[in-house]
Amino acid sequence: MVDNRRRAFMRTPFKRTSKVSIQPLPWLKDVSTFTDNCTRCGKCIKACETSIIKQGDGGFPSVDFKSGECTFCYACADACPEPLFLEEHAQPWQQVISIDDACLAKKSVECRSCADTCETQAIRFRLSVGSVAQPQFNSDDCTGCGACLSPCPVDAITMQTNTKTITEQQL
């Protein structure tokens, strides 16, 4: 007797649960007052050249790195009719990535998908004796573009606030 439920398993599209987080838009003057001043017009969503700005909770726009990376084109800020954004020459946001222990390389499986997509080479792999090359992350080189988040097959990369950058700006 054939169990047809098991046959359909490989035909069903794989849906991985993702912990890629939703992020605020780049160049926001004040994230805490964003919801008070954003009219949810959607102009920033239409202007995004990589289509990573999506309609989030309550209809507010947010960056979803599952769709791609931020190219820092400033089109979202230019399209916004409200004075929500900093000038283009300012730093877009205070975010960098973090690689957790779910990383395949940390489990001795060869994978370098994050480094392959990192234009600034903030993620590099260092050879390790008796194991596969291990990821080395340099927060000074990370722009927070999010290019490395989507290609990670196990969602081991998350975006977090760069406390080092915030501390330096407060001095």
Describe the structure.
This protein is of the alpha+beta class and 171 residues long. 19% of the residues lie in helices and 19% in strands. The chain is built from 6 helices and 7 strands, in the order H-E-H-H-E-E-H-E-H-E-E-E-H. The protein starts with a helix and ends with a helix.
Describe the structure concisely:
This protein has helices at residues 4-9, 34-37, 43-47, 75-79, 113-117, 163-170; strands spanning 22-23, 53-55, 61-64, 95-99, 123-128, 131-137, 157-161. By secondary structure, it is of the alpha+beta class. The relative contact order is 0.18.
Number of domains: 2
Would you report the number of β strands? 7
Fraction of helical residues: 10-25%
* Name of the CATH first level of the largest domain: Alpha Beta
